[in-house]
Each structure stands twice: as structure tokens, then as C-alpha cells.
Amino acid sequence: MTDTASSPVAPRRLAGRAVFPIGLGCMGMSEFYGATDDAESLATLHAAADAGVTHFDSADTYGHGHNEQLLGRFLQQLGPTRRAALTVATKFGIVRAPGRYERRIDNSPAYIRAACEASLQRLGVECIDLYYCHRRDAAVPIADVAGALGELVAAGKVRAIGLSEVSAATLRAAHAVHPVAAVQSEYSLWERAVEAELLPATQALGCALVAYSPLGRGMLTATPPAPEQLAAGDFRRALPRFTGDAGTHNRERVAALSGLAAQWGLAVTDLALAWVLHQGPQVLVIPGARRQRHLAQNIGAAAVRLDAAQQAALDALFARGSAEGRRYPDAGWLGIEGE
């Protein structure tokens, strides 16, 4: 039933460029998922580029600048010609103390300008390809945020702007001030809230929808982790969807997903990523991968074609709202709109 002879999703466009539909989310290379290994992370970044990945996603808050510095080392090692073919995205707006998950949100124009300069330095670039407002501070008008970002574009410091975890109304208001190239939001089989309003809004406005955590932070895989199997520093130990009765329920759903994958001759990760990519021509995914073996497991999803019956079966198994538990602990909801 599945035709892998050609990709149904390539090429996709992001910030005015054609990109491979599966990017690389770099957050886990710096924190949140236990111990990190810069040497392995750099090897994974190079393996991704060698495999054709052209979209790399970071943020200033990941490792308190470490993630951008790591990505900057990778870009320097690539050299200017290969770097020019990549789309590098980073974000501003989440302010945390080292070692703390709790945060505040800063969207003030002065902060945006200062954060951009700091990210340019850490990345070692003259222009950021795609610069996102990571989370929204409702006290700052979105017109002011979009205006400040537009000034960075005019100054040649940013090529395109994006928003993350915003409502469709915020997207439309920002887009009226300056074109928004992309919206980043959590989107996967077990997290489908964007389908109500944000997904159609991105298509109507010509924005990309960049889906983060498209594998449910590792739950939508062949071996979904139980909380006790996670490293002491892994933030998933505190995620409601991974723990207690909700975690048990969600792992039962994933077991059924594994059964479908086996029936169709696909890896679970291929199936989960391909489903997201089939949700619209503007949709891209940025699964995280800290190790080369995980990267290799993700890349093949771009060649998977799902027919209507397969998509319907997945839609039924993971109907909107069927996952149990909230997707963040209380502190993680700060700055998230639309829920």
C-alpha cells in the first residue's frame, strides 16, 4: 500500500528557499534530554548536512547560548559555500536562569535587537536566515514585535521572520505588519490542536508551518520510553503525557501505531513523520536527533507516500484530543497562545 519510489513532499519552501522537508531540531544537543556530547552532536550535524538536510533549528535559550555556539562551530567547519545552502533558524524571547526550567518572556523591541546581536555572534554569521519570536508576551503589542523584526530584516541582520506557538489571530496581525515566513508549533499524531485554526491560517497566508516534536518527544517511536528509563536530567520525567495513567494510556496507543507500521512495512518513526508531512504542502518537520543513528531513522520519512486509507486509519487511532495529559508542566505554558 505504500509507495516509496518518490517523495510526495519535496521540495518544501521555507523563508524563500527550497529545503529538504525534514529538518533537524538541535535543542537536545544542549539540554533537557540528559547528558550531552558535543563531539557526537557535531558529527550528527555533519551527517545531517551530508544526507541532504538543509534546515537547522536552534534558540538562544537552549543551553543558555550553548546550542547556537555549537551550531556556529558546525557552520564554520562547513565553510561558506556549503553554509550558504542551509537555512539556519533561531529564536528569542524565553529568558531563564542557568539550570532552571522556569522562565519569563521578553518581547520588547530593545530586547529583540540585543538578542539578535548576541545570536549573530554565537552563530558566527552576518545574517540569521529565519528569526522566530519563541514565545509571546501579551503585554507587548504584536505590531511592535513584528515591527522590530522588520527593522532587523531591513538592516540585513535577519532574512525572514517567524513566530512560535501563537494563535491564528496573532499570526494574521503580525503578518499585516511584516510578512511572516513561518510559524513553529508542536504538531504530531498525538498533538493536533493546530488543525483547528492555525494550520489553515498558515496555508491561507502562504506561511510555512514548522512542526516541532513531530515524534512526540520520543513517544511515537518503536521504543517509547517509560519515565523510569529516562536520565535524571531528562525533562520528560515531569511531562504529564509521559507519567502516571496518562503515560500508560498513551503508550497503549503507540503500541497500536507499531502494529500498523508493521502491517504496512514501515518504521514507526517513518510513519509518524510522514503523516505530519501529508497534512499540507506548507508543513515541515524538525525532529530532534542527538545521535547519528537517530538521524538516519528520521530521514527516510520524506520518501514515504501514505494513501487515503492509511491516513484515515492514523486519523482514527490518534483522533484530535485523544492523547491524555497536558503536553507541558505548568511552567512550560508561559507565552503559549491558543490553548
Question: What is this structure's SSE topology?
Answer:
Elements: E1 12-14, E2 17-19, E3 24-25, H1 38-50, E4 55-57, H2 66-78, H3 80-84, E5 87-92, E6 94-95, E7 104-105, H4 109-123, E8 128-133, H5 142-154, E9 158-164, H6 168-177, E10 180-186, H7 198-205, E11 208-212, H8 244-264, H9 268-277, E12 283-286, H10 292-299, H11 308-317
Parallel strand pairs: 3-4, 4-5, 5-8, 8-9, 9-10, 10-11, 11-12
Antiparallel strand pairs: 1-2, 6-7
Describe this structure in words.
The protein has 339 residues and is an alpha/beta fold. The protein has a single domain, classed as NADP-dependent oxidoreductase domain (TIM Barrel, Alpha-Beta Barrel). The strands form 3 sheets. The protein has an 8-stranded parallel beta sheet with strand order 3-4-5-8-9-10-11-12. Strand 10, helix 7 and strand 11 form a beta-alpha-beta unit. Helix 1 packs across helix 2 and helix 5 packs across helix 6. The N terminus is likely disordered.
Output the keywords.
8-stranded parallel β-sheet, two-stranded antiparallel ribbon, TIM Barrel, 339 residues, disordered N terminus, single chain, alpha/beta
